[in-house]
Design a protein that fits this description.
By secondary structure, the protein is an alpha/beta fold. It contains 7 helices and 9 strands; from the N terminus they run αβαββαβααβαββββα. It has helices at residues 2-11, 33-47, 86-99, 112-116, 122-142, 163-172, 248-259; strands spanning 23-27, 53-56, 78-81, 106-109, 151-157, 178-183, 199-206, 213-219, 225-229. The protein has a 9-stranded mixed sheet, sandwiched between helices. 35% of the residues are buried.
Length: 260
């Protein structure tokens, strides 16, 4: 159920209002952004009676991420397009309302930072995101007779180190009321690799007006993904939120509970 809940939150199918909330997926290299994005696209194609989900990326995927989760008929409903430059992406998005015969239930864009690398200014970056939002809103209006609109999910590598990266983020983050942050360093020094765990990611979802949610995302050597809810820790006036790093015993407990 935990995996399905995270996917539903990303898809926008959990009731949060009359329209789905655009979601910005953020994390450093190796944090599983593309895999989670693809998993959300599969979920959208699986649970929504829609002709397609639109998946945009700078280049073709070398392999479908997610291991066994990439199988099934849902992938047939995902339409992959690979605009290779900022200008190509702008032209493509601007023409979607004319070129798509049916309104998609979801638009996902992987690797926003690669397009922004050739951006002339933060203002231009904001204009691209505004265009994506307008397109999503257009398809949501066309789907007004259905229970779910057109969700927009965008992934972006974010380290917060370079001035240009921070400038771009500051220009676009206000357009995304929901943000999913990925932290790949949990358990890093606690001997988890000795237990055969390839990678553990902590996912934190922040949405205005809703309680923050957290998950542990586990990737094995085959690329398969397991998602487990992370229990909320109670804060007091004299305590702060714990760091992203978890102990081996905490991870063992969470993963054991997810199997039961």
């Amino acid at each position: 159920m935990s995996a399905e809940l995270l996917e539903l939150e990303m898809v926008g199918s959990v009731p949060v209002g009359s329209r789905p909330r655009p979601l910005l997926l953020l994390g450093p290299p190796g944090s599983g952004r593309s895999t989670l994005l693809f998993r959300a696209a599969l979920a959208g194609a699986s649970i929504v009676s829609s002709p397609r989900v639109l998946f945009l990326a700078p280049r073709a995927l070398e392999r479908l991420p997610g291991g066994k989760a990439a199988g099934g008929g849902a992938i047939q409903k995902i339409h992959f397009l690979y605009p290779s430059s900022f200008q190509e992406l702008v032209q493509l998005v601007a023409s979607l309302h004319q070129t798509l015969p049916n309104s998609p239930s979801m638009i996902v864009l992987d690797g926003l930072e690669e397009y922004l690398n050739s951006c002339s200014s933060a203002c231009t970056a904001a204009q691209l995101v505004a265009l994506l939002l307008d397109t999503s809103s257009h398809f949501t209006q066309k789907r007004s007779h259905l229970s779910v609109g057109c969700q927009l999910i965008v992934s972006m590598r974010f380290l917060g180190e370079s001035g240009e990266e921070i400038e771009h983020f500051s220009a676009i983050e206000r357009y995304f009321p929901a943000k999913l942050w990925l932290h790949p360093n949990i358990g890093k020094d606690d001997g988890l690799h000795n237990q055969g765990l390839t990678k553990l990611i902590r996912a934190q979802l922040f949405q205005p007006g809703r309680k923050d949610q957290e998950w542990i995302v586990k990737f094995d050597a085959q690329g398969s993904m397991t998602i487990s809810p992370l229990p909320c820790k109670i804060e007091t006036e004299n305590e702060t939120v714990s760091e992203n790093k978890l102990s081996v015993s905490e991870v063992d407990t969470i993963l054991s509970n997810s199997r039961s």
